[in-house]
Amino acid sequence: MLEAIRQLRTTTRNSRREMRVAADAIGELLVDVFHFVALFAIGATTVWSAVGAFLGMAARGGATLSDILLLFIYLEIGAMVGIYFKTKLFPVPYLIYIAITALCRVLIEVVGAEQRTGIDILIITGGIVLLAFGCLVLRFASQKSPSESQRLPVPHAPPVNQSERAPI
After folding, report:
1. Do 135 and 92 form a contact (C-beta atoms < 8 A)?
2. Residues 75, 127: Cα–Cα separation, whole Å
3. Segment 22-52, tens digit of pLDDT
4. For residues 103 and 79, is the Cβ–Cβ distance under 8 A?
5. Alpha helices per DSSP H over 61-151
């Protein structure tokens, strides 16, 4: 009887461990599927919006500085999606670059508008300076304490045998 209870306990533990491994694998698969679907949706929306903005500029016969900055925002979003797609790391500095570019667009509109006070311009430029400082802090912090992926050694090519080298 005691042996049967021990065997039942061992079987239960093994089953529980196997179920946990299976549930973790299914969970990771679902998260990966969600990431891929969301990345493709964000990427497709970015391309769609950029093409629409470009066609609007072409229809008007020209582009303003604000329009060009908008295209840079789309470019940065696309780069951010590409980096996340390849590395599974979220490039936070790109969000700061997007915010800085967006504030530059607002600054251009404020400067171009009539009857604006100087305080509007100061607030927007202060926001740009704070975001630039935040980007500097992130860069400094990532150099002082790199993430796990940055600590991994980079594989080097094996040394080339001198007899296998092609003549110059």
Report:
1. no
2. 22
3. 999 999 999 989 988 998 999 999 999 999 9
4. no
5. 65-87, 92-112, 118-144, 148-151
